[in-house]
Each structure stands twice: as C-alpha cells, then as structure tokens.
C-alpha cells in the first residue's frame, strides 16, 4: 500500500470536518466495547539514551497508520457540537493513529525526544463536564496526544501546561467515549502519568516509567509493595527439620526461581508488576540500538495471541483482545520502531528524514497488517 500525502490541517483530512474525523475513527468503538490491554515501559542505556515502548491491544484492528506531522501544522480540537481548541504545532512529530484520523495519536515521538502514549482506563476516567469546559480550550480525549507532541519538549513543560486544556466526554460524536489515561516521557528519562479525575487532569510522577490500565496509577504503585521479595537472583537452598528426625533440604528447581510468584495473567495489575520486574532487572545495554532490541524482547512477554483472553459472555467487551502492534521509540536518535500482528519484522522510521520527506504536508504511511487473520511473513533460508 503506498503512503498517502495529505494537507497538514485536520480540517482538510479526507475532506471531512473535525467532527466527521473523530466520528469516523473513534466510531470504531461504538457498539460492544472491544477489550484493550496495553502495556508500556522504558529502558535507559549505559550511555544515557532513553527508549520507550508499549503494546497496543484491542478487540478489533484499529488499522493504525504512522502519521508524520511537520511543525506549523494546524489542528482543531473537538468540543462536541463544534470546534474546540485551535493551535499550530511548534514541533514536528510522528505517531501511530486510529485509522486515517491522523490527529488521534495512540503513541508518538516529537523532534525534542518527547514521547506520549494513550492507554485504556476503563471505569476510572472522569472527564470535564461539558457545561464546565472552556470551549476554546477543549479536546476530545484521544486528541490529547497530538497536543502534547505538537507543543512540548519536556515532561516539566507538560506538567505546567496540562490543565490549560479540558477533555470532555463527547458522547454525541462517539456513542461511547473510551476512558483513557496517558504516559509521557522525555529524553532525560523523566516520566509522568496524566489521568482525568474529578473533571481535571491529574499528574503523577512515574519513577517506574510503566503504565497499563485500570485501576489508577496510585493503586498500581501501592500494589508493588506486595512484591518486594521478588528478585532476579537465584535463591539459596534452605534446610528444614531437626537433627534427631532427619533434615530436608529445599532448593530451586532451576533458573528463574528468583521471580517465583511473579503474576502471569493478562490483568492490568499483573502486567504492571511484570513490566516493572522486567525493566528493573534487564541487563545493561551499551547504547540506544541495543536498548531498543532489549525492550522489544521484554515486550514480547506481553504479546497477547488472538483468542487467549476471551471476554465474559454478555459483557460490553464483545471481542477477544490481541496485540495489534508493538512500538519502541528511541528518544535520543529520534527513531520510531514498530511491528504488527501480521508482520513481526521490526520497521524503523527516522523522524528527521520523515519530516524532510513530508515537507510542509502531513504524510501517512501504513504500519502493516493488523488483522488477527493475517500471518507474518517468513524469510526463506538460502542454501549453499
């Protein structure tokens, strides 16, 4: 599929107004809500380079594409019945979209090395009520990622400005508005979580640099106290019994015994604990390239095959969730890497080169097959 070149304004995409854009793509969520189980984490290489990665799970393919937005692009947020916040991007950025709605960024990277990712947050998002929102400062929830990447260079800049916007639950557009929260990280390694709570955007420092889904981030942080004994170290043997009745020596069966008790299911709390364990115990990497490879290996542990996480019958979650794509962003070298369900080969996009190719226009390129029926290509071995 060839890439598409589109005018760098959200009101010009597909010849639809912004209301049509948001309704088109997030309309994918109308009806039974598909399961979603994203997992994100980060590594820092020995030379200080930071890489950030995540999986994207959904109960149906989102047909994500890679949007390349140049600096100076015009954006118009949605306020439900009309336009909301209008702005132009200060920085060029790249990100994975919801279908062809290029201003709905699920995960992305800008030229300053800022990463922003959207994660499902069911039952916990509390958006600004429409009657309290500042219309000229309003965005749809899924538009926040574009606003962050377009305007800010660091986590501290985001922290200072995040309550300059209001996220509203725009039911007339979507039928169902997804509950979401966000993880933001910059090239220094700092990370925060942004959660809509009580009608405001609440910011949490994120020393773990990990995020999954519900409950809220504070709950996940507290839950880590249940796993203090976990270690990657091989435990020592232990002897039981008294000398007059014999002794029994207990010892590990094999490698990995230090992680005994690590939860292995697909629930958000379990995935959060596992990602913290993996990223905290990963072997040091010398540079960004090695860190990217290491983080892809870690994220492989969170890959959900289609059908193994089936929602309960009669619930609003109509389809099994599966890993539609996995991405890793290199915040130093400004590279966005990804693989999809139907193509497990890692693709790499250099942001500087992509912006040069885009010029002054939005550029959309395909991510690859994301349908659960697609089969990843293999590479034939060349025999001598």
Could you describe the 3D structure shown?
With 384 residues, the protein is of the alpha+beta class. Helix content is 18%, strand content 29%. It has helices at 18-26, 144-151, 155-161, 171-174, 217-223, 268-281, 288-300, 351-358; strands at 4-6, 40-44, 50-58, 65-69, 74-78, 83-88, 93-98, 101-110, 115-120, 138-139, 166-167, 180-185, 191-197, 200-205, 238-240, 248-250, 322-330, 335-340, 343-350, 362-366. The strands form five sheets. It has a nine-stranded antiparallel sheet. It has eight helices and 20 strands. The protein is globular, with a radius of gyration of 22 Å.
Write the SSE topology.
Elements: E1 4-6, H1 18-26, E2 40-44, E3 50-58, E4 65-69, E5 74-78, E6 83-88, E7 93-98, E8 101-110, E9 115-120, E10 138-139, H2 144-151, H3 155-161, E11 166-167, H4 171-174, E12 180-185, E13 191-197, E14 200-205, H5 217-223, E15 238-240, E16 248-250, H6 268-281, H7 288-300, E17 322-330, E18 335-340, E19 343-350, H8 351-358, E20 362-366
Parallel strand pairs: 10-11
Antiparallel strand pairs: 1-20, 2-3, 3-17, 4-7, 4-20, 5-6, 7-8, 8-9, 9-12, 12-13, 13-14, 15-16, 17-18, 18-19
């Amino acid at each position: 599929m060839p890439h598409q070149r589109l005018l760098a304004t959200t009101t010009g995409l597909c010849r639809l107004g912004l209301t049509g854009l948001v309704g088109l793509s997030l309309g994918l969520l109308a009806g039974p809500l598909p399961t979603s189980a994203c997992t994100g984490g980060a590594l820092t290489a020995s030379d200080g380079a930071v890489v950030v990665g995540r999986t994207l799970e959904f109960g149906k393919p989102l047909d994500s594409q890679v949007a390349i937005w140049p600096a100076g692009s015009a954006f118009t947020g949605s306020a439900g019945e009309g336009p909301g916040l209008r702005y132009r991007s200060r920085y060029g950025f790249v990100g994975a979209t919801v279908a062809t709605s290029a201003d709905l960024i699920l995960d992305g990277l800008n030229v300053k090395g800022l990463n922003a990712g959207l994660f499902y947050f069911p039952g916990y998002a509390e958006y600004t009520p429409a009657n309290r929102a500042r219309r000229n400062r309003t965005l749809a929830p899924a538009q926040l990622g574009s606003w962050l990447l377009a305007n800010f260079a660091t986590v501290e800049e985001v922290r200072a400005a995040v309550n300059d916007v209001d996220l509203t639950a725009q039911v007339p557009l979507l039928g169902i508005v997804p509950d979401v929260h966000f993880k933001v990280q910059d090239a220094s390694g700092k990370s925060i979580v942004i959660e809509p709570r009580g009608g405001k955007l609440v910011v949490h420092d994120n020393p773990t640099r990990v995020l999954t889904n519900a409950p809220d981030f504070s709950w996940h942080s507290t839950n880590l106290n249940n796993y203090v004994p976990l270690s990657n170290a091989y435990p020592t043997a232990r002897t039981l019994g008294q000398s007059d009745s014999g002794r029994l020596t207990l010892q590990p069966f094999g490698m990995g015994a230090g992680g005994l008790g690590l939860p292995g299911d697909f629930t958000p709390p379990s995935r959060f604990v596992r990602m913290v364990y993996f990223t905290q115990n990963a072997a040091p990497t010398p540079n960004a390239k090695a860190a990217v490879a290491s983080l892809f290996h870690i994220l492989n542990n969170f890959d959900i095959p289609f059908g193994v996480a089936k929602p309960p019958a009669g619930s609003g979650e109509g389809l099994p969730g599966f890993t539609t794509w996995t991405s890793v962003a290199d915040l130093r070298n400004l590279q966005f890497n990804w693989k999809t369900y139907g193509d497990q080969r890692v693709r790499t996009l250099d942001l500087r080169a992509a912006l040069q190719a885009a010029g002054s226009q939005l550029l959309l390129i395909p991510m690859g097959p994301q349908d659960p029926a697609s089969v990843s290509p293999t590479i034939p071995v060349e025999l001598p």
